[in-house]
């Protein structure tokens, strides 16, 4: 009886801890102009695409607009160098993803290569959150884009223009905001080591590839959200962070899918869809630093619309929502397993030893 009481006390304590992590709201010093500029970076290409009657082109450029979110709070010169580098990386990742679409057997190896390389570079140059997440998202969406071979240069040009537009918006935003607040000092580059620059990126890349391979084995249609969900979970700074992020992502995505179903059931045209995505982007960038699960509620419909908006109305929203829920559960589970391995001292010792031998 005493043991049962102790177990019950532990279970209730565990649930209480998880609930506190789920409802904790973090402080934020982010000015409202930043989410507004981010919404412009992702929304203006959609409005231009709607004006010319080619929303599908606007969606590709809007994906490049996500580069704006990599802007650090440093001096103007450092901001622009960082953003231009990220713009190149986003374009390159999307290009490789689109090219892998024509050779499906290469889709998983290409995504593993991109995940490893972008994670290495983000860690080497001290790129903060969202880290390699949007690079993987661009590659994944590109890999499942219904593109013909002769359209590849057009698609690459569109995402390049979207990324450059984001850099231009970031420049004018920075000129304005740096007159109101001082820039933060440029952080020192992290000290490179085998564990952080080689071991971690390789493990992360392998598990991202495993998540996509499982999606292909299960014959999931347009499973671009599986590797994105996996990476979002596995890149937590600690096992506690990985677990918390998995809970936040599953709960937020579940609610977000209900919101997505409601939004996709509305009679949206290209103009209303563009405005809606701008509103979602503004809410996300306002909320993400305060509460990740709450932001995920709005990230889910935005991501679905970025990848599916051009084909909306050609099928049932319920089928699409069910597919994305399955993608999230699968990707988050693989990400959790990868996070456990990544933060296991035994795994790091055994696998790291073998990797060092290969590197000799």
From TrEMBL:
Sorted UniProt keywords: Membrane, Transmembrane, Transmembrane helix
Predominant subcellular localization, coarse grouping: membrane
Transmembrane regions: 34-51, 57-73, 105-126, 133-152, 158-178, 198-218, 255-284, 290-313, 325-347
Keyword Transmembrane among UniProt keywords: yes
The keyword Magnesium belongs to this UniProt entry's keyword annotation: no
Xref: Pfam families: FUSC_2
Subcellular location: Membrane
Integral membrane bound transporter domain span: 211-337
Domain of life: Bacteria
Membrane topology: Multi-pass membrane protein
Protein name: FUSC family protein
Organism: Magnetospirillum sulfuroxidans
